[in-house]
Amino acid sequence: MPMSKSFQERLFPALPKIIEYFGTPFHIFDEQGIIDTGEVLKRNFKDVIGFREYYAVKALPNPTILKIMRKLGFGLDCSSASELTLGRLNGFHGEDIMFSSNDTSTELFNIAMADGGCILNLDDISMIDKVPEFPKLICFRYNPGERRTGNQIIGIPVEAKYGLRHDQIVDGYRMAIKRGAKRFGLHTMIVSNERNYLYMVETVRMLIEVMEMVSQALGIKFEFFNISGGVGIPYRPEDRPFDMPALAKEAKKLIDGFQHKYGYSPKLFTECGRYMTGPHGALVMTAINRMSKYREYVGVNAATMSANPRPAMYETAYHHITVLDPAGNPRRGNEETVDVVGPLCENNDKFAKQRLLPKVEIGDIIVQHDTGAHSPAMGGNYNGWTRPQELLLHTDGSVELIRRAETMDDLFATFNFKPKVLKKP
Ligand SMILES: Cc1ncc(COP(=O)(O)O)c(C=O)c1O
């Protein structure tokens, strides 16, 4: 089921007033839903010693959302200088931050290791010598290559640009020890938007095998292993949710097995982005045009590329849509097949293709579900369209602006600079 019933019940009746106050378009996020998901995640893993979630900032890089994650006791997964800065400005420091960059510059390593550092997750064996001041705690991202396949979305591991090869992983830790590392972690990510928990159980099993292999070769102990993100959510009404309790139960069994053999348990970390916030966001737009061409079109006042590029970028991406009349009542019946489109000069600018919806009238409220992860975060400015405002529906029912809409001035700010010309060299 996309977007929880509880979120719909609290949001839909309030929409006419919210729209009157803030105008459309906007993304609105559900504080209660995010907190509940975080608490349930912690409860699911309560028997897995040292379990910690590191929320993937890239899913929804908003300071207010990050503060909710901090209150939940979570850390952050960052992969760029801006994400590190946003995390640090919002109270995440040192080992609260797992830094998984790739194709990393020396400058970026310096930023990562400044301000109390982070847990550095190296993505390539060649990076070991490039870290200016090598930390005591080091983690490597592992790529299983031919040994295991990920799901289709993230691709085939041998074709992925991430991680150390299987035959490089022992050498990676050996070289890290030479550079002074004393504490160790292991990381991988081989699925994306996967709702079958068995894939993640396989990831746990695989990382345990790798930790055993490295420990036996080098006599080191692992403090943690990180199965990262990739947990899917039910975007379509018929989709079944990911079985997190089953993953927690199976992961505990495997970790207990490790404990039995080696006398200690490495901690289990996750980096869920989509699972934490995906279902707790919605994009609210207004229908501004009805157009009849070879197909029937509903035109809305937002553009996919700036508001939610997922349906335009990925052929398989589906976001459910609810149509409400201007008074906030869901429209029912009288269905027709339409494309829901934005104003971009780009034929992919479709929030929905050939979707059966109740008949939409101009002025109706169009709610696109599940935009809480990788939606506004992926937005760009093609055609000069700007990103919509972001609102938070608080637990007490109040609604707060947590990011203003981008303006044309924001776009043109990069044309404001001191003239600079290199005369013919
Ligand atoms: C290293 C890493 N961790 C975590 C995530 C979060 O993934 P998801 O939002 O699918 O859980 C990503 C997504 O790209 C990632 O690259």
Account of the protein in words:
The protein is α/β, with parallel strands linked by helices and 425 residues long. It folds into 2 domains: 31-277, TIM Barrel (Alpha-Beta Barrel), CATH 3.20.20; 279-405, Lyase, Ornithine Decarboxylase, Chain A, domain 1 (Beta Barrel). The protein has 13 helices and 17 strands. It has helices at 5-11, 15-22, 31-44, 63-71, 81-89, 106-113, 169-178, 197-218, 244-262, 274-277, 304-307, 310-313, 408-412, and strands spanning 26-30, 52-56, 75-78, 97-99, 119-122, 137-141, 183-187, 224-226, 267-270, 281-292, 296-300, 321-324, 335-341, 350-358, 365-369, 389-393, 399-403. Strands 1, 10, 11, 12, 13, 14, 15, 16 and 17 form a 9-stranded mixed beta sheet that branches. An 8-stranded parallel barrel has the order 2-3-4-5-6-7-8-9, surrounded by 4 helices. The longest helix has 22 residues, at 197-218. The structure holds pyridoxal-5'-phosphate.
Corresponding CATH architecture of the largest domain? Alpha-Beta Barrel
Radius of gyration: 23 Å
**Uncertain stretches:** none
Elements, N to C (H/E): HHEHEHEHEHEEHEHEHEHEEHHEEEEEEH
Distance between the termini: 62 Å
Compute the number of strand runs.
17
Name of the CATH first level of the largest domain: Alpha Beta
Q: Sketch the major β-sheet.
A: 9 strands, mixed
Number of helices: 13
Number of domains: 2
- What is the 3D form? globular
Overall helicity: 25-40%
What name does the CATH topology of the largest domain carry?
Answer: TIM Barrel
